[in-house]
Amino acid sequence: MTTRSHASLFATILSEHGPQILSAWSDRLKSTGALASGRLREAELQTQCRTVLELLSTAIAGGLDAASPNYGPLRDVLADVSRSRAVQGFTPSETATFVFSLKQPLFEAVSAAEAGDPSTVARAVQDITQLIDALGLYTIEVFQKSREETIIRQQREIAELSTPVVKLWDGILALPLIGTLDSQRTQVVMENLLESIVAQTAEIAIIDITGVPTVDTLTAQHLLKTVSAARLMGADCIISGIRPQIAQTMVHLGVELNVVSKATLADAFALALKRVGRTVVAVKARELPAG
Questions:
Q1: Is residue 202 exposed (0-12), middle (13-18) or buried (19+ Cβ within 10 Å)?
Q2: How far apart are CA 124 and CA 183, in angstroms?
Q3: Does some domain include residue 289?
Q4: Residue 286 belongs to some domain of the structure
Q5: Taking the model in full, what pTM does it have?
Q6: Residues 81 and 115 in one domain
Q7: What is residue 207's three-state secondary structure?
Q8: Which of the residues 143, 159, 170, 284 could staple to 82 if both were Cys, CB 3.0 to 4.6 A apart?
Q9: What count of Cα atoms within 13 Å lies in the side-chain half-sphere of residue 12?
Q10: In 186-196, which positions are buried (b, 16+ CB within 10 angstroms) versus exposed (e)?
């Protein structure tokens, strides 16, 4: 029997024994713990299995090439299942099991349909194995891509949250940096600072690096890029929070920031106030009446 004939055989088996295959598949998924975590309801699992079997029955009548156009709707559904599994916290193995566990019910159905012809069963099992493997690998690829996109998005959100721009006074902004400053984070820092300079019409931006563990040549370059971008927007920058250890490291490396720097944020703020024509004075305590 040719591969094309096997496709017709599988289509017939799925059409005539679909409910039995669906039941056996669902039972295998439950036995592997698909519902144990509580992340997936039984009704949802049944719907997914039923939809996949229906689309497989339609697609398989046109051949056994999982990459062909007639498998497009099935691949779309499997992609949705993979993405939902990634969001729900399933592992790659648990996601792959959803597809791979369909093999045994199909093997049993083929064996029952062609019980008198072992050679046909063997070749048919080989064909169905290749098909299910291809579909299973596709779900893993989608799952992995979805996880990577989620991680990248979370990293971007964390970077944005960890680089807030604070308004200290009219025309004065502060950008406290915490953690390592790499190329990707520098881009986020720069975008946030420039947007805030425009929105607040700021004249001075204080970049506080108290929370930066170390400043090497690369970190200094990132800081200078941010300073240069701010200057192009018409705002001067002051670097604050350079600790003694960082100062020694920068001198040892020959790193020059070429920008005004202060030891603390308070010192930088006092300088910024002076530049914008403001000053902070102590208010005398109100004298209490005698008696």
A1: buried
A2: 54
A3: no
A4: no
A5: 0.60
A6: yes
A7: strand
A8: 143
A9: 10
A10: bebbbebbbeb
- What one-letter code names the amino acid at 157? E
Number of domains in the chain: 2
Whole-angstrom distance, CA of residue 62 vs CA of residue 71: 9
pLDDT at 74: 96
For 260, the token pair is 């005004």
Residue 280 phi, psi dihedral angles, 5° rounding? -110, 125
Q: Identify the domain containing residue 178 by its residue range.
A: 166-275
Alpha carbons 47 and 24: distance in angstroms, whole number:
14
Tokens of residue 220, six digits: 């200094």
pLDDT tens per residue across span 270-291: 999 999 988 877 777 555 566 5
Tell me the three state secondary structure of residue 97: helix
- What token pair was written down for 60? 């398989």
Yes or no: say if 13 and 113 are a contact pair by the CB < 8 Å rule. Answer: yes
Query: Where do the DSSP E strands lie in the chain?
Result: 166-169, 172-178, 204-211, 236-240, 261-262
- SS3 for 213? coil
